[in-house]
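Sample entry (308 residues):
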Amino acid sequence: MLGPVILAASRSDRMRRLISAAPVTKQVVDRFIPGEDVDDIVPVVRELAGHGLELTMDVVGEDITSPAQAAAARDAYLELVDRLKPLELGTRAEMSVKLSMFGQALEGGHELALSNVRPVVEAAAEIGTTVTLDAEDHTTLDSMFAIHEELRKDFPQTGCVIQAYLFRTEADARRLAGSGSRVRLVKGAYKEPASVAYQDKHEIDRAYVRILRTLMQGEGYPMIGSHDPRLIAIGQELAHQAGRKLDEYEFQMLYGIRTDEHLRLAAEGHRMRVYTAYGTDWYGYFMRRLAEKPANLRFFARSMLTKG
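Predicted structure, serialized as tokens:
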């Protein structure tokens, strides 16, 4: 029940100022966001790759109010690509982008976001890697899927994210499960109305399993975005039933959450990708991490009480 309250707080300027000013906040934020700029993140990339893990990197920041800010977001990703090139990790280090950062919500936002994200996808392809388009709230998805389809004409490896709690997602999964597709399935982390999304955790979990079965039985490349031990085990079983080899799907988890599980899955031969965010505009990302998992909220609250 706390999730919707936290998500509402993520949009509150007053809460942003209060939480940002708390002395303990940086210590806790560092658990989930290991740096503020690309110089901070390159050593993290090296370290995780050295442990047999793969990465997808997100430059955090979604409150874009001008085309100039959207262009700056594009340039931040292009700088990241430039710094990844000498590491020669290929698809072991890809990128995740939110189209809101590229101007999707501005006037003419669909075309603006497409024009800003395309150079990032092109640059990623040049160094042997790719980009996944993150899903945001349900009002943005038709635009996201249209941009995804357009990019895949020239860069078929471009991935996208679907969210199990939305009613529409089972149909989206069937459409996206074709040959060459890359689809990350997550539960969903935005506050959505009951008219478009399941509200009950058990209904969301059941939808997740149905959708994952569709992806595993399809011809694409499923990416299992979950920290839930039960869903991870179900994902392994569905992959086995579908006759998939270990390199024909992957697990994805957030940096700083269940780190031991990251290493365990990688040691067992699974592809395990760590979603690693960095940047100065961390507030919205951080609040959604708290909303997703009660243990994260307890960790933060305990830190506030003991260190504040």
